[in-house]
Design brief:
This protein is an alpha/beta fold. The chain has a single domain, classed as SCP2 sterol-binding domain (Nonspecific Lipid-transfer Protein, Chain A), CATH 3.30.1050.10. The protein has eight helices and seven strands, in the order βααβββαβααβααβα. It has helices at 9-20, 23-28, 71-77, 86-93, 99-104, 115-121, 125-132, 145-162, and strands spanning 3-5, 33-40, 52-59, 62-69, 80-84, 109-112, 136-138. A hairpin with a 2-residue loop joins β3 (52-59) and β4 (62-69). The protein starts with a strand and ends with a helix.
Length: 164
């Protein structure tokens, strides 16, 4: 199985492909229409020198978009923007922590949208997590020193190209 690095366009692209070809995921979100965005806070030790945002637009379970966004584009498109450290997102994606618990404890903060709206999406949080973890996912803290240098360079490159 191909390993995808966290917080890269390849990860999001493959996650979108898998979502769109997995009827179970689409069915579980068929009642959901939203634009939810996630801020990964800057963590230079992880090769993330400044915050990065990615988001998903879902319309009645159909994934319309899963991509990285600039701050301005995210604010304009998002119904919800939630923020956390990359370490916190890793715990969610590795299913060590639950989204709702961490949200209620303030480990994940709401930057845009209503708390009531997020709580309405909470029953679907595991499906969102499943959609992003159908691939073998490698996090920056699992990289060797050499791999981290390559990752850091790649992150700067794709962010410049995508203007995110």
């Amino acid at each position: 199985m191909t390993v995808y690095r966290y917080c890269t366009p390849e990860w999001l692209k493959q996650s979108a492909i898998i979502y769109r070809t997995t009827p179970r995921l689409r069915k579980e979100l068929e009642k959901v229409t939203t634009q939810v965005f996630y801020r990964i806070k800057a963590e230079p030790a992880w090769g993330i020198d400044r915050d990065i945002l990615f988001g998903a637009a879902v319309n009645k379970g159909e994934l319309e978009e899963l991509a990285f966004f600039s701050e301005e584009a995210a604010r304009a498109k998002a119904k919800y923007i939630m923020a956390a450290t990359p370490q916190e997102w890793k715990k969610i994606l590795r299913k060590e922590n639950k989204f709702l618990t961490d949200f209620m404890l303030g480990r994940i903060t709401l930057e845009q949208g209503s708390k009531i709206g997020v709580l309405g999406l909470a029953p679907y949080a595991n499906v969102f997590v499943d959609a992003l973890t159908q691939v073998d996912l490698q996090f920056p803290d699992e990289l060797t020193t050499r791999e981290m240098e390559e990752y850091r360079t790649y992150v700067k490159q794709f962010r410049a190209e995508l203007e995110v």
